[in-house]
């Protein structure tokens, strides 16, 4: 990516491959690094320590949200191998994500984003319940990190169903000839 940006006239990557690389980089960084590692990983490590409890409120829900991610990442990586890869931008720009531009690779990416969203929703529910219910008796004041995880979890719970709805509408546009986008 850097080489192509440094040398605009060079034909190091063709435009389709460049779009696929940029899209896969953005989707992997957002949905498979920032959200699971930065929020889920550090939250699962630090929230029980800061609340002085042994574990999160629902450890099995926590494990489920963790084990959904490898399958979702596998589908995302497979979407880059199938056909020419997903080159629709990190926003899955609807004209570029229609069936006339991308086939099975876009379906794999959409399914991957659905699974990553389910994982993030379940971990966000676990964070909100844990922070709300498991603080100590005299601990009405929380540190800044639990508050930030609680607010981020609330924002994820409000935005990820909207993302899932948009992805579902995109799937119906692609396969059932609806016209949402």
Automatic annotation (TrEMBL):
GO molecular function, one term: metal ion binding
Biological process annotations from GO: electron transport coupled proton transport; oxidative phosphorylation; respiratory electron transport chain
Catalytic activity, reaction form: 4 Fe(II)-[cytochrome c] + O2 + 8 H(+)(in) = 4 Fe(III)-[cytochrome c] + 2 H2O + 4 H(+)(out)
Membrane topology recorded in Swiss-Prot or TrEMBL: Multi-pass membrane protein
Annotated GO CC locations: mitochondrial inner membrane
Protein family: Belongs to the heme-copper respiratory oxidase family.
Name under which the protein is recorded: Cytochrome c oxidase subunit 1
Originating organism: Magallana angulata
Underlying gene: COI
């Amino acid at each position: 990516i850097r080489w192509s940006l440094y040398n605009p006239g060079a034909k190091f990557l063709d435009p389709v491959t460049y779009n696929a690389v940029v899209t896969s980089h953005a989707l992997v960084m957002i949905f498979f690094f920032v959200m699971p590692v930065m929020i889920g990983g550090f939250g699962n490590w630090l929230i029980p320590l800061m609340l002085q409890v042994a574990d999160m409120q629902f450890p099995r829900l926590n494990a489920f949200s963790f084990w959904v991610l490898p399958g979702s990442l596998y589908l995302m990586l497979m979407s880059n191998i199938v056909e020419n890869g997903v080159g629709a931008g990190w926003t899955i720009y609807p004209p570029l994500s229609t069936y006339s531009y991308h086939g099975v690779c876009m379906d794999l990416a959409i399914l991957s984003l659905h699974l990553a969203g389910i994982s993030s929703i379940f971990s966000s529910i676990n964070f909100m319940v844990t922070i709300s219910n498991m603080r100590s008796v005299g601990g009405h004041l929380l540190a800044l990190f639990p508050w930030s995880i609680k607010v981020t979890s609330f924002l994820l719970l409000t935005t990820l169903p909207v993302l899932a709805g948009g992805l579902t509408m995109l799937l119906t546009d692609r396969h059932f000839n609806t016209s949402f986008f």
